[in-house]
Design a protein that fits this description.
Low-confidence stretches: none
Number of strands: 2
Distance between the termini: 25 Å
Largest sheet: 2 strands, antiparallel
Strand content: 15-25%
Shape: extended
Helix content: 25-40%
């Protein structure tokens, strides 16, 4: 849970158009920021693997529903 949802300081996830990864990484390097490609964005599911094993596989619609209504669900 900490690895997936921890909010460590000074980290950001950045997306870019296909083929622009090199330019983004070069800009990060010029700014003295370490970067790493960690995956691809697209499709109707969020799938996360850890050390090659799937650890999360959810429909984007399900995630959106939780995001839009999560507080309402908790507060009632």
């Amino acid at each position: 849970e900490g690895l997936l949802f921890g909010e460590d300081a000074s980290r950001a996830v950045v997306t870019c158009a296909p083929g622009r990864e090199k330019a983004v990484r070069e800009a990060a390097a010029e700014a003295g920021v370490r970067s790493k490609v960690i995956g691809k964005v697209g499709g109707d599911r969020l799938t996360v693997t850890l050390d090659g094993a799937p650890c999360l596989d959810l429909a984007v619609a399900e995630i959106r529903e939780a995001w839009e209504n999560g507080l309402r669900t908790v507060v009632g």
